Amino acid sequence: MRQLFPKPKAQLETDLQAKRGSSIASMNSKDQTPKTEDRIGVIDMIAHSAKTNEVVLVMNEPDEWNGSDEQLLALQERFNAYVSFLLDGEMMEAHPEFAGKPARIELRCTHMPDARAIELLGLIHDQLKFQEIKLEVVVRNDERLMTDAERTTDDKCRNE
Q: Mean pLDDT, to the nearest integer, of 2-23?
């Protein structure tokens, strides 16, 4: 399996620390639920955007960000699985109709990522760029349904 970040957790911590230029304090956090661990190898949704002609792989993150090493490692492992799916031929095998289309990974969060998650997402973004894969993070903490007018405005804002 191709890995976006094949580094051990300690190296990830060192990279985040170096990027910030300061030490990362240990934080007490609640344990990760098994559902997070069970989702590591799962692609939540695959779609085609007719508007951008991109293959979109959606990764849902419904949990609140807690800054824990475990949560960041799970996020890193999920991205590794998505990248492997895209680059190692699994997607073309499962969906030949998407051959040759550019790809985007869309992380849909229920809560705004914390500072450590944002740092990691920045590193992931930079690595994905080398593979010509886009990354988009969408935060939706509002459970209400959007009207068509709001959705159109939202789409315009995302594409600018």
A: 46
- Residue 95 pLDDT class (50, 70, 90 cuts): very high
Distance CA 59, CA 128 (A): 15
Say yes or no to pLDDT of 17 above 90: no
Segments forming the whole domain that contains residue 87: 60-142
Angle at 45 between CA 42 and CA 48, to 5 degrees: 140
Residue 117 placed within a domain: yes
Q: Pick from 34, 18, 107: which is nearest to 70 by CA?
A: 34
User: Which pair of tokens denotes residue 106?
Assistant: 């869309």
DSSP letter for each residue of 90-106? HHHHH-GGGTT--EEEE
Domain contains 111? yes
- Calpha distance 83→103 (Å, rounded): 10
The answer to whether residue 3 is domain-embedded is: no
